[in-house]
Design a protein that fits this description.
248 residues; mainly alpha; Hypothetical protein af1432; 12 helices; 75% helix; globular
């Protein structure tokens, strides 16, 4: 059994002792509504079924990751939409669009420039679904813009900009506790680096987490995103001590 299997178990024990980010306790209504749309909309059900195989062994960014991003992006859309006075009907359509983007955002994760290639792929795929050309473009733009520290392309509508920003923030929420409960270990299991290399790269990984704190884009993301990162960093620092004491 890989040493990383044992480290992942210890990591999840550490994660379980930390509180959930306040975003979830402060916005249960929006989170529940996002989940209802995600579970019941036929377009999303079809996309999930299609992507089940497409996202297998996807460098730690499989369907589990895509689902979490989609759900949080939908909740962010609901919060931001209501605060902006957007009608419930338009909010619901925005949730559908951003959840579709969330499911598709890492579909080309194994390739270089995966956000660019993923945007192109999503545009072609969604042309066969009941979306308008404007809505398809909103998904494409959001996927293109979801990577940190890269130049974004402008959205051509207010809702398009919101779709893009909600997808980005929901994706970066995953750099918090989720990084140490799931994502990091799926990536490590795929690459299986020597433990010495893993530990040598650990400080730069923590530095990357800290850099994300200032990049959140929506008002809601800016309010709650830094806490996600702070919790992730605290988990990571505790885990490193465990690795050095138990696995070296």
């Amino acid at each position: 059994m890989s040493v990383y299997t044992h480290i992942r178990k210890r990591a999840r024990q550490i994660v379980s002792r930390f509180p959930q980010p306040e975003f979830y306790s402060d916005h249960p209504r929006e989170i529940r509504h996002s989940g209802q749309i995600f579970a019941t909309d036929p377009i999303l059900r079809d996309l999930k079924a299609f992507l089940a195989d497409q996202l297998e062994d996807n460098l730690g960014h499989g369907l589990r990751h895509a689902t979490k991003v989609a759900l949080d992006a939908g909740a962010l859309m609901a919060v931001e939409g209501r605060e902006s006075g957007i009608s419930d009907r338009l909010i619901d359509r925005g949730i559908l669009i951003v959840e579709s983007a969330g499911l598709l955002h890492d579909v080309k994760r194994k390739q270089n420039d995966h956000s660019v290639k993923g945007a192109v792929y999503a545009g072609k795929l969604l042309s066969g679904y009941p979306f308008s050309s404007k809505e398809v473009e909103e998904v494409r733009t959001a996927i293109y813009n979801h990577e940190a520290f890269k130049k974004c392309i402008p959205a051509y509508s207010r809702r398009g900009a919101l779709v893009s920003d909600c997808l980005y923030d929901a994706d970066k929420f995953r750099w918090g506790p989720d990084n140490f409960s799931d994502t990091l270990w799926e990536m490590v299991m795929f690459h299986n680096p020597p433990l010495s290399d893993f530990i040598a790269n650990y400080p730069s990984g923590i530095e990357s987490l800290l850099k994300i704190k200032t990049t959140f884009r929506t008002g809601t993301g800016k309010k709650y995103g830094p806490q996600f990162i702070d919790i992730g960093v605290a988990i990571g620092e505790e885990l490193l001590k465990v690795i050095k004491s138990e696995f070296l």
